[in-house]
């Protein structure tokens, strides 16, 4: 049984707790938050101890960093240097800049630890299927993609102290749509050129809406639109791929439905699935990989750095 400590008891911690509780071979052993009421609440819920300082964590196998986005680089590095946990999970994004990411890897390496960034959407069955189809060459030349992430985060969400700040949030691509930026990177590889145009439409320090165009080394071109200003609730996430031998459109809250399928010589697969929350089930798969020590299922360092370069290129 692998013992896991959670650092940060905010919004995303609930999803990690659910995933860990649903996965054999892992368990939450301790929680940590600088706000004692939050840590105590989660600790009582799980019947585990809590601490306010992550440097006091001892005797666990994995520490999952679930703190505000802009704090991830420093928290990951300090945990690597000050605790005896051999593995450190980091929620998205690992960092807001490539420079920070290089520094994190350097410090984690020096401490002799292993960094496991969260890329749960790569474990979405439909994304896995489409990635395999792209790599197989059955679609022929890839021409164009369109990705839209049309979500809602109301004013109460941005009343949380770090949300919407330039130093800790990073904007819609980093905090909400980051997994879909990673998805296009996962599908198409290295970016050749790209440009994002953002809107500061709700009085935040960061972009609440952004439209970007991209061209990849593979030749494919495409666009990504992301917003947290959909009326009242999340509207949809959608991804369309135009290729020489087919057109595919995935949609749903988390790309959990095949809305259009016209592929030469292939019937539409019956792979739609339902979700009971907005995050999908990718965290479960990630913790299953941790439980089974399937470390090769996590992205390589080169892959991670290339993806952060893409994010930074489109955001600034």
Keywords:
316 residues, seven-stranded mixed β-sheet, six-stranded parallel β-sheet, 13 strands, alpha/beta, Dihydrodipicolinate Reductase, domain 2, Rossmann fold, 10 helices, 2 domains
Number of helices: 10
The CATH class of the largest domain is identified as: Alpha Beta
Number of domains: 2
Radius of gyration: 19 Å
Structural class designation = alpha/beta
Look at the structure and give the mean pLDDT. Answer: 94
> Quick one: CATH superfamily of the largest domain?
Dihydrodipicolinate Reductase, domain 2
Q: What's the CATH topology name of the largest domain?
A: Dihydrodipicolinate Reductase, domain 2
Helix content: 25-40%
Task: Describe the 3D structure.
The chain is of the alpha/beta class. It has 2 domains: 2-120, NAD(P)-binding Rossmann-like Domain (Rossmann fold), CATH 3.40.50; 125-263, 2-Layer Sandwich (Dihydrodipicolinate Reductase, domain 2), CATH 3.30.360.10. It is built from 10 helices and 13 strands. It has a 7-stranded mixed β-sheet with strand order 8-9-10-7-11-12-13, with helices on one face. It has a 6-stranded parallel β-sheet with strand order 3-2-1-4-5-6, with helices on both faces. A hairpin with a 5-residue loop joins β12 and β13 (257-263). α3 (72-82) packs parallel to α4 and α8 crosses α10 (301-315). The longest helix is centred in the C-terminal third of the chain and has 15 residues, at 301-315. The N and C termini lie far apart (43 Å).
Topology:
Layout: E1 2-7, H1 13-21, E2 26-32, H2 36-46, E3 50-51, E4 62-65, H3 72-82, E5 87-90, H4 98-110, E6 114-117, H5 125-136, E7 142-150, H6 155-158, H7 172-175, H8 178-188, E8 191-199, E9 209-216, E10 221-227, E11 236-243, E12 246-251, E13 257-263, H9 282-291, H10 301-315
Parallel strand pairs: 1-2, 1-4, 2-3, 4-5, 5-6, 7-10
Antiparallel strand pairs: 7-11, 8-9, 9-10, 11-12, 12-13
Helix pairs in contact: 1-9, 3-4, 4-10, 8-10
């Amino acid at each position: 049984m692998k013992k896991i400590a959670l650092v940060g008891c905010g919004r995303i911690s609930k999803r990690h707790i659910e995933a860990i509780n649903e996965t054999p071979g892992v368990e939450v052993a301790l929680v940590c938050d600088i706000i004692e009421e939050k840590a105590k609440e989660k600790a009582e819920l799980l019947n585990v101890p809590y601490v306010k300082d992550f440097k006091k964590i001892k005797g666990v196998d994995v520490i999952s960093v679930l703190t505000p986005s802009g704090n991830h680089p420093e928290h990951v590095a300090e945990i690597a240097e000050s605790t005896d946990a051999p593995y450190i999970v980091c929620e998205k994004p690992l960092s807001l800049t490539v420079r920070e990411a290089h520094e994190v890897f350097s410090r984690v390496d020096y401490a002799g630890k292993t960094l496991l960034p969260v890329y749960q959407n790569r474990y979405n069955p439909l994304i896995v299927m489409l990635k395999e189809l792209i790599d197989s060459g059955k679609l022929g030349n890839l021409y164009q993609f369109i990705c839209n992430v049309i979500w809602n985060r109301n004013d109460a969400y941005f009343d949380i102290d770090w949300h919407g700040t330039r130093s800790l949030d990073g904007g819609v691509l980093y905090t909400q749509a980051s997994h879909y930026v990673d998805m296009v990177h996962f599908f198409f590889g290295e970016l050749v050129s790209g440009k994002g145009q953002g809107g500061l439409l709700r009085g935040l320090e960061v972009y609440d809406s952004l439209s970007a165009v991209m061209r990849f080394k593979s030749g494919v071109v495409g666009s990504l639109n992301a917003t947290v200003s959909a009326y009242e609730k999340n509207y949809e996430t959608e991804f369309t791929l135009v290729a020489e031998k087919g057109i595919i459109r995935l949609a749903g809250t988390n790309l959990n439905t095949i809305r259009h399928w016209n592929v030469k010589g292939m019937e539409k697969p019956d792979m739609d699935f339902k979700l009971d929350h907005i995050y999908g089930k990718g965290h479960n798969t990630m913790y299953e990989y941790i439980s089974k020590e399937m470390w090769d299922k996590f992205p390589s360092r080169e892959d991670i750095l290339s993806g952060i370069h893409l994010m930074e290129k489109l955001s600034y």
